[in-house]
Design goal:
65% of the residues lie in helices and 7% in strands. It is mainly alpha-helical. The chain has a three-stranded antiparallel beta sheet. A hairpin with a 3-residue loop joins β2 and β3. It is globular, with a radius of gyration of 14 Å. The protein starts with 6 loop residues before the first helix and ends with a helix.
Protein backbone atom coordinates (compact mmCIF):
# COMPACT_ATOMS: atom_id res chain seq x y z
CA UNK A 1 0.00 0.00 0.00
CA UNK A 2 1.43 3.35 -1.04
CA UNK A 3 0.40 6.63 0.54
CA UNK A 4 -1.19 9.32 -1.58
CA UNK A 5 1.45 11.96 -1.97
CA UNK A 6 1.58 15.49 -3.18
CA UNK A 7 4.58 15.31 -5.53
CA UNK A 8 5.47 19.00 -5.22
CA UNK A 9 5.12 18.85 -1.43
CA UNK A 10 7.36 15.78 -1.33
CA UNK A 11 9.98 17.45 -3.55
CA UNK A 12 9.92 20.55 -1.34
CA UNK A 13 10.29 18.40 1.79
CA UNK A 14 13.27 16.59 0.24
CA UNK A 15 14.80 19.95 -0.71
CA UNK A 16 14.28 21.18 2.89
CA UNK A 17 15.99 18.13 4.34
CA UNK A 18 19.02 18.42 2.04
CA UNK A 19 19.20 22.20 2.48
CA UNK A 20 19.31 21.74 6.26
CA UNK A 21 21.66 18.75 6.25
CA UNK A 22 24.41 20.12 3.98
CA UNK A 23 23.21 23.18 2.09
CA UNK A 24 23.77 21.04 -1.02
CA UNK A 25 27.52 20.76 -0.38
CA UNK A 26 28.85 17.32 -1.30
CA UNK A 27 30.93 16.39 1.74
CA UNK A 28 33.18 13.32 1.59
CA UNK A 29 32.88 12.87 5.38
CA UNK A 30 30.37 14.04 7.97
CA UNK A 31 29.59 12.95 11.52
CA UNK A 32 33.11 11.67 12.17
CA UNK A 33 33.05 9.63 8.97
CA UNK A 34 29.73 7.89 9.54
CA UNK A 35 27.83 10.02 6.98
CA UNK A 36 28.72 11.46 3.62
CA UNK A 37 27.51 13.31 0.57
CA UNK A 38 25.13 16.08 -0.28
CA UNK A 39 22.42 14.03 1.45
CA UNK A 40 24.33 13.47 4.71
CA UNK A 41 23.37 9.80 4.75
CA UNK A 42 24.81 7.19 7.06
CA UNK A 43 27.01 4.74 5.23
CA UNK A 44 24.96 1.84 6.60
CA UNK A 45 21.72 3.37 5.28
CA UNK A 46 23.27 4.04 1.86
CA UNK A 47 24.49 0.43 1.70
CA UNK A 48 21.01 -0.87 2.56
CA UNK A 49 19.45 1.30 -0.16
CA UNK A 50 22.13 0.28 -2.69
CA UNK A 51 21.19 -3.34 -1.94
CA UNK A 52 17.49 -2.51 -2.47
CA UNK A 53 18.34 -1.07 -5.90
CA UNK A 54 20.68 -3.94 -6.76
CA UNK A 55 23.67 -1.58 -6.86
CA UNK A 56 27.07 -2.55 -5.53
CA UNK A 57 28.05 -0.30 -2.64
CA UNK A 58 31.11 1.82 -3.22
CA UNK A 59 31.19 4.90 -0.97
CA UNK A 60 33.68 6.77 -3.15
CA UNK A 61 31.61 6.17 -6.29
CA UNK A 62 28.37 7.24 -4.58
CA UNK A 63 30.04 10.33 -3.10
CA UNK A 64 30.99 11.37 -6.64
CA UNK A 65 27.47 10.71 -7.99
CA UNK A 66 25.15 13.40 -6.60
CA UNK A 67 22.25 12.23 -8.77
CA UNK A 68 22.43 8.78 -7.15
CA UNK A 69 22.68 10.35 -3.71
CA UNK A 70 19.49 12.35 -4.27
CA UNK A 71 17.77 9.23 -5.60
CA UNK A 72 18.75 7.40 -2.40
CA UNK A 73 17.54 10.30 -0.23
CA UNK A 74 14.20 10.42 -2.06
CA UNK A 75 13.83 6.65 -1.69
CA UNK A 76 14.60 6.79 2.03
CA UNK A 77 12.22 9.71 2.63
CA UNK A 78 9.48 8.01 0.63
CA UNK A 79 10.01 4.74 2.47
CA UNK A 80 9.58 6.66 5.73
CA UNK A 81 6.46 8.34 4.37
CA UNK A 82 5.09 4.93 3.49
CA UNK A 83 5.84 3.69 6.99
CA UNK A 84 4.26 6.63 8.86
CA UNK A 85 1.83 8.04 6.27
CA UNK A 86 2.88 11.43 7.62
CA UNK A 87 5.42 13.71 5.93
CA UNK A 88 6.35 15.36 9.23
CA UNK A 89 7.36 12.03 10.79
CA UNK A 90 9.13 11.03 7.57
CA UNK A 91 11.20 14.23 7.77
CA UNK A 92 12.03 13.56 11.39
CA UNK A 93 13.02 9.95 10.71
CA UNK A 94 15.49 11.13 8.04
CA UNK A 95 17.61 12.44 10.88
CA UNK A 96 16.80 10.27 13.89
CA UNK A 97 15.88 7.01 12.15
CA UNK A 98 12.82 4.81 12.44
CA UNK A 99 13.40 3.79 16.02
CA UNK A 100 13.41 7.26 17.55
CA UNK A 101 11.05 9.07 15.17
CA UNK A 102 8.00 8.05 17.20
CA UNK A 103 9.30 9.96 20.23
CA UNK A 104 8.00 13.29 19.00
CA UNK A 105 9.28 16.29 17.20
CA UNK A 106 12.70 17.64 17.83
CA UNK A 107 14.49 20.83 16.98
CA UNK A 108 15.67 19.11 13.75
CA UNK A 109 12.12 19.00 12.37
CA UNK A 110 11.54 22.68 13.03
CA UNK A 111 14.85 23.66 11.41
CA UNK A 112 13.97 21.68 8.27
CA UNK A 113 10.43 23.06 8.33
CA UNK A 114 11.84 26.59 8.16
CA UNK A 115 13.54 25.72 4.84
CA UNK A 116 10.32 24.13 3.57
CA UNK A 117 8.25 27.17 4.55
CA UNK A 118 10.71 29.53 2.85
CA UNK A 119 10.68 27.53 -0.38
CA UNK A 120 6.88 27.23 -0.40
CA UNK A 121 6.62 31.00 0.06
CA UNK A 122 9.17 31.61 -2.72
CA UNK A 123 7.29 29.28 -5.08
CA UNK A 124 3.86 30.55 -4.04
CA UNK A 125 2.93 26.99 -3.13
Amino acid sequence: MYPEIDEMGFAIALFGVIQHETGFVNYADLDNGYSFGVISMLQSTAKEIADDFGHSFNRTEITQNVERQIKYAAYYLYRSLKRYNCIDKAILSYNVGYVRSHQGFTNYYYLVKKHIDNLEKELGY
